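Handout, page 2. Input:
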Amino acid sequence: MLAATVLLLTAGCTSGGGDGPGGGKSVTSRRTAPGSPSSGEAAEQTPPAKGSVQVVRTVAANLRTPWGLAPLPDGGLLVSSRDDGTIARVDEKTGRTTVLGAVPGVAALGEGGLLGIALSPAYASDHLVYAYLTTDSDNRVVRMLYDPKKPARQQLGAPDTVFKGIPKGMIHNGGRIAFGPDGMLYAGTGESGDRGLAQDLKSLGGKILRMTPDGAPAPGNPFGASAVYSYGHRNVQGLAWDTKQRLLASEFGQDTWDELNAIKPGDNYGWPDAEGKSANPRYHNPIAQWHTDEASPSGIAYAKGSIWMAGLRGQRLWRIPLKGTVASAPPQAFLKGAYGRLRTVVSGGGDRLWLTTSNTDGRGEPSKTDDRILEVRVS
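Output:
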């Protein structure tokens, strides 16, 4: 059993999900697939082939294993700590960091712990914060009341479990959650190291899930009374929507190809039978793909006509300009090696992004000020 565990961990560390070494170059897929651009999409404005990135400042420093990030509507940033199981508020003007409280039940082991966070669509009135976390038995989504009037470390209410039963493992726990333009909650999950789960529609592993804010399967889901929205994924950690409300997702490959995908309800994205582009028409091909040492992508955000994708092992920020659901130019890399591993990228509106490093997660080489939140301007 110990040998099997070591082998599994080694596989995680040498694959895209484990952010280990690899090699190769980025390749853009232009092959059409289910959900390829319609004639209406063809009229969309194409962003410039080349963009730019400027790191304006370090917003906060000395954070421990930051994972999820959520801007508050009245100012400030909420950030989760994977290993500590806490959520903190960062004043984006001063950098002051205040721990709101610990989330009970978090089991931080391997790639699991307190992962993605998101604000309720009705946050202005209900003040609810959603979190994706690993427990002793599963991965699940909970929600908590955030009361900033209470003392520090007492500002989070008791967690209410919204959705449970997502497979957990030492690797491939997924973890990104986000509310879509439809008001539904989306969650990217991993296959937890059990490759077959990705193709099993009865399993919640290796999927993108879509549910109501209360955790019920969302109306209109493709598989009836199931939260499964798409399947055949290895480890989804990035979710974002463009201005036409189209969902895009980043996905860790194993040894060959990481992916950026345009997500269509009910589509099969191929894992474990396909990694990257495939000639099999059963599988939805990626918009773009990268060798795993150049990306190992986690968070993504949409801004200025492009998807911006944070790379862990790749230690860079990728720009993928889009026209509809097709890459309109080859992906462009920024910040290569300048800040180490990059975990989460979130839109701050307009040309501003919030970007987190991930050098204290056990796989990076932290500086004296890691981990950090950076303010970035893009075009």
